[in-house]
Amino acid sequence: MIIVFYLIPFLIVISALVDILRNEFNPHQNKVIWVIVVILLPVLGSILYWIIGRGQRVNRY
Q1: Where are the membrane-spanning stretches (predicted)?
Q2: CB-CB contact of 12 with 5 (8 Å)
Q3: Residue 26 CB contacts under 8 Å (≥ 6 apart), including other chains
Q4: Start-end of H helices in 1-61
């Protein structure tokens, strides 16, 4: 049961980092800033990215 409390935040952070690295941002520096935020503030940074950062991505299509 305790492993769930470690696994869920870990998966949230990994999914945010993968999403950041796979997409383009405008301006390009936003990608670096989001990676730093997610690494320094893992759970909070990931939540902030999913709320705020996804709107900063560049549409590819």
Answers
A1: 32-52
A2: no
A3: 56, 57, 58
A4: 2-22, 29-40, 42-51
Q: CA 45 to CA 31: how far, in whole Å? A: 13
Q: Output the tens digit of pLDDT for each of the chain's 61 residues.
A: 788 889 999 999 999 999 999 999 888 899 999 999 999 999 999 999 999 988 888 876 5
* CB proximity list for 4: less than 8 A, separation 6 or greater: none
- Model confidence, pTM: 0.85
- Domains of the chain, residue spans: 2-56
Identity of the residue numbered 60: R
